[in-house]
TrEMBL record:
<dbReference type="GO" id="GO:0009236">
    <property type="term" value="P:cobalamin biosynthetic process"/>
</dbReference>
<dbReference type="GO" id="GO:0003824">
    <property type="term" value="F:catalytic activity"/>
</dbReference>
<protein>
    <recommendedName>
        <fullName>Cobyric acid synthase</fullName>
    </recommendedName>
</protein>
<dbReference type="InterPro" id="IPR047045">
    <property type="entry name" value="CobQ_N"/>
</dbReference>
<keyword id="KW-0315">Glutamine amidotransferase</keyword>
<dbReference type="InterPro" id="IPR033949">
    <property type="entry name" value="CobQ_GATase1"/>
</dbReference>
<feature type="domain" description="CobQ/CobB/MinD/ParA nucleotide binding">
    <location>
        <begin position="21"/>
        <end position="245"/>
    </location>
</feature>
<comment type="pathway">
    <text>Cofactor biosynthesis; adenosylcobalamin biosynthesis.</text>
</comment>
<dbReference type="InterPro" id="IPR002586">
    <property type="entry name" value="CobQ/CobB/MinD/ParA_Nub-bd_dom"/>
</dbReference>
<feature type="active site">
    <location>
        <position position="438"/>
    </location>
</feature>
<dbReference type="Pfam" id="PF01656">
    <property type="entry name" value="CbiA"/>
</dbReference>
<dbReference type="InterPro" id="IPR011698">
    <property type="entry name" value="GATase_3"/>
</dbReference>
<comment type="function">
    <text>Catalyzes amidations at positions B, D, E, and G on adenosylcobyrinic A,C-diamide. NH(2) groups are provided by glutamine, and one molecule of ATP is hydrogenolyzed for each amidation.</text>
</comment>
<comment type="similarity">
    <text>Belongs to the CobB/CobQ family. CobQ subfamily.</text>
</comment>
<feature type="active site" description="Nucleophile">
    <location>
        <position position="351"/>
    </location>
</feature>
<dbReference type="InterPro" id="IPR027417">
    <property type="entry name" value="P-loop_NTPase"/>
</dbReference>
<feature type="domain" description="CobB/CobQ-like glutamine amidotransferase">
    <location>
        <begin position="272"/>
        <end position="445"/>
    </location>
</feature>
């Protein structure tokens, strides 16, 4: 087994790559960002590294160059590694369509729908797919940094687990457990998570990482010593709170009211963008590129008056187009969007949001609702196909090059080509635009031209900054994550874990076995 070294490190011939699992005490504890930070730090050392998440539940996905659909967080982590994403990095993706059912995507292709009980029928197959995918990556890379899912202490799900300790046990992975101190109760979360594991699982948990710290280090220090004494495991890093960390998140738990880097207060001539926060919102990362534009105020909204007050309203993607359209009508948001369009005020629909703008939606696939009237703002009709469309299209709009990706069951046709004009793969009529392309706003020249048009129609004296570079902003965020690891984690201990695995003889923490502290 080759030692993990950088460009000057040497080492013996490798038979298979090393791997590490980053688990978390809860969803949104910071697993994705810690994984990305470790990936970035390792890549800087000249180590050939890749990310992996065996099973991901997310409505934020992307299409890889090999035509597979995977979670956007894994694509972001691949960018941190300096490599292209591929299907093996997220072999199982669950896309919730309701509170009880999810679409099951295996190696980038949808294979069916399942509820929690029906999912058990997939379990053995998915376990093998996950392990084979990890083995594939370990053959191709020196290190694979794996991310867990949810919490490893979901004791009711442990028997069928393929993403947390089930994966760690099967592949012999050392585990770092991440806790979010900003929630409060981080030491209870770390200790309790460990105590709920069976001894064989505990034996792989080698240490802790405390995330989102913004207090006085001297007040935290005694707790670090206590958790080490109580569990026999050190805290390998305390990562400070990082403002403006708008990297690609997995679900709406990470969806703030505004997304974008910290910046000065917006002036009276700022451009106000309202993004409707649909119940099954998907790929809301499409909006991130707007958040980097100076003078653009992006907010996620759920009430009609918030739509009325905006210069641009965006209907984003949805995993449940017909159901979310019904929600728009129930909330009065549909009427508000129609009113503003009638007044010539800008509206943009992306993917599911584009489908809602149609005259009619025929859906016997996703919702089973049959024919449903749309908002009627574009001269289009939508029919849902059983096979999902996945692609990475490119073209032009406003005379600028545009590249994006598409993930949808709905196929849109135009009633009358004389109504409106083409817009990317979609349609534009007056101040209403629609497209299935995700990621289009990440194209700098196109984004600036589109926002200039919106500003003119909204009567705003707004001019996009010519130097805004979204790709550079994203790279800076990934570099910031690598800096966090370099500056605030014990990187020597991290390398030893990757090379040697979890130390032997780690003590077992029994449930309820906390001994009294002196004093």
């Amino acid at each position: 087994m080759r030692a993990v070294r950088g460009r000057d490190g040497g080492g013996d011939e490798r038979t298979t790559g090393h791997a590490l699992l980053v688990a978390g005490t809860t969803s949104d504890a910071g697993k994705s960002v810690v994984t990305a930070g470790i990936c970035r730090w390792l890549a800087r050392q000249g180590i050939k590294v890749a990310p992996f998440k065996a099973q991901n539940m997310s409505l934020n996905s992307v299409v890889t160059p090999d035509g597979a659909e995977i979670g956007r967080a894994q694509a972001m982590q691949a960018a941190a590694c300096g490599i292209e994403p591929r299907a093996a990095m997220n072999p199982v993706l669950l896309k919730p369509g309701s509170d009880r059912r999810s679409q099951v995507v295996v190696r980038g292709r949808a294979v069916g729908e399942a509820d929690a009980v029906g999912y058990r029928a997939y379990r053995d197959r998915l376990r093998r797919v996950a392990l084979d995918s990890l083995a594939e990556l370990r053959d191709d890379y020196d290190v694979v940094v794996c991310e867990g899912a949810g919490s490893p202490a979901e004791i009711n799900l442990r028997a069928g687990d393929i993403a947390n300790m089930g994966l760690a046990r099967a592949a012999g992975l050392p585990v770092l457990l991440v806790g979010d101190i900003d929630r409060g109760g981080v030491f209870a979360a770390l200790h309790g998570t460990l105590a709920l594991m069976e001894p064989a699982d505990q034996a792989l948990v080698a240490g802790f990482v405390i995330n989102k710290f913004r207090g006085a280090p001297e007040l935290l220090a005694p707790g670090l010593d206590m958790i080490r004494d109580l569990t026999g495991r050190p805290v390998h890093g305390v990562l400070p709170w990082l403002d403006g960390l708008w990297i690609d998140v997995e679900d709406s738990l990470g969806l703030a009211a505004d997304r974008g880097p910290a910046r000065p207060p917006l002036g009276a001539q700022s451009l106000r963008v309202a993004v409707v926060r649909l119940p099954r919102i998907s790929n809301f990362t499409d909006i991130d590129a707007l958040g980097v534009e100076p003078g653009v105020d992006v907010r996620f909204v759920t009430r009609p008056h918030e739509v009325d007050d905006a210069d641009l309203v965006i209907l984003p993607g949805s995993r449940a187009t017909v159901d979310d359209l019904a929600w728009l009508r129930e909330r009065g948001l549909a009427d508000a969007v129609v009113r503003r369009a009638a007044a010539g005020r800008p509206v943009l629909g992306v993917c599911g949001g584009y489908q809602m703008l149609a005259r009619e939606i025929h859906d016997d696939v996703e919702s089973g609702a049959g024919r449903v009237p749309g908002l009627g703002l574009l001269p289009t009709r939508v029919a849902f196909a059983r096979e999902k469309t996945l692609g990475r299209p490119s073209g032009t709009a406003y005379g600028r090059p545009v590249a994006g990706y598409e993930i949808h069951h709905g196929v849109t046709t135009v009633d009358d080509p004389s109504e409106g004009e083409p817009f990317l793969d979609g349609r534009r009529v007056g101040a209403v635009w629609g497209t299935t392309w995700h990621g289009a706003l990440e194209n700098d020249a196109f984004r600036r031209a589109f926002l200039s048009d919106v500003a003119a129609r909204a009567g705003r004296a707004f001019t996009p900054a010519p130097g805004t570079d979204f790709a550079a902003e994203r790279t800076a965020r990934l570099d910031a994550l690598g800096d966090l690891v370099a500056e605030h984690m014990d990187t020597g201990a991290l390398l030893r874990l990757i090379e040697q695995g979890a130390p032997s003889g780690l003590p077992v923490v029994p449930p309820g076995g906390v001994r009294p502290l002196a004093g």
